[in-house]
Every structure is written in structure tokens, then in C-alpha cells.
Amino acid sequence: MPTPNSEHPTPNFIRCTWCGSDPLYIKYHDEEWGKPVYDDKTLFEFLILEGAQAGLSWITILRRRESYRKAFADFDVEKVAKFDEKDVERLMQDEGIIRNRLKVNGAITNAKLFIGIQQEFGSFSNYIWGFLPDKKPILNQVEKMGDVPARTEISDRISKDMKKRGFKFFGTTICYAHMQATGMVNDHLINCIAR
To answer: Which entry of 28, 33, 127, 176 is annotated as an active-site residue?
Structure first.
């Protein structure tokens, strides 16, 4: 269990308020959100999930995560990159995912571009973590959830570069959510149990 921050001593450890009381949200908050991810497969999974989330709540996607895993070949980027029109039609009939043709096509496009980045940089992880100083996570000092930004200069830069490469559904706000999900930034409250 973490020790209280000396500048903000408090005996009561709490959770970030956004996870509420939903057990799925709490598990995600405690075990994944803000934890650094360097594995390309997991980075690709979050790229698919964050793209699907655009305009929706994260819990909506989290509840469909296993359906996405089945629908998108266990997040195997090589397989998803080869999806064709038949796969798109199959996905459009899949009630377990968000059936938005632009998002489905975007996920397939993004898979192809993800592979291109792997070839150029050795891994997608090398590419995306390369935007951070010394490739180290940014540990923000969040005292209240209202202090958490929706975007930053770094998310602007990553999003701009990825859009230039042709990525879909990866604006700066989605990019920042991806950074939080994969631990590139830690926006847990300073006295949060999962920090």
C-alpha cells in the first residue's frame, strides 16, 4: 500500500472519483489505468478501444471489451490489418461492439498504420514513448479530478503526428486518454490507493 505524500498527509486513502462503485471500473482503475504499458499488443488494444470510445463513456467500451477482443482477433494487429469488406460487414452485425462503420474502418486503417510504425521504429512502443522526456511516465500531482487536463502539448504533438500518418479517431483528447490508460501519464489523485 502506498504511503501518504508528505506534502499532503492523510490517513484516508481514496480512489479517483471517476471510477465510482462499478466493480469493472474499480478493477480497471486499480489494476490498469495509469500503469505503464510497453507491450505493443496492449498498446494496440487500447488504440482500438479508445477509437471506439470517441463520443461515448469509457465504461460503455469497458463493458464491451471482451466482445472487442473476440471481434478484433484477440487484438492481433497483423490479423486486423488484413480485415476486408467481409470482416467489416461481420463487425457491423456484431451487437457486442459499437457498430459504427467509420470506427470499424478506422480500426482496420489504424492496424495497418500501426504495423508501419512498428517497421519504422522497431515497435509502436518505441514510437509513442519517444514523445516523452527520457521515455519516462509523467507523474502529475493531481489533488482533485478537476485538475486533470483533457489534453496537453504532448498529446497535441502525438495526435498531430499520428493524424499526419493517417490514423483515424485519434484527436488530442483521445490521445491523452490513451496516454492515461497506458501509464504514459499518471493522473491518479496524489492520495489514491492505485497511485
So the answer is: 28
User: Does the active-site annotation cover 50?
Assistant: yes
Active site residue 58: yes
CA distance 25 to 148: 18
Tens of pLDDT, residue by residue over 116-148, are 999 999 999 999 999 999 999 999 999 999 999
Q: What is the pLDDT of residues 174-187, one digit of tens each?
A: 999 999 999 999 99
Which of 25, 58, 127, 176 is catalytic? The answer is: 58
Long-range contacts of 113-117 (CB under 8 A, 24+ apart): 113/162, 113/165, 113/166, 113/167, 114/40, 114/44, 114/47, 114/77, 114/81, 115/77, 115/78, 115/81, 116/165, 117/165
Q: pTM for the complete prediction? A: 0.91
Written as nine digits, the cell of 31 is 489494476
Q: How many CB atoms lie within 10 A of CB 123?
A: 16
Active site residue 33: no
Catalytic residue among 25, 45, 50, 127: 50
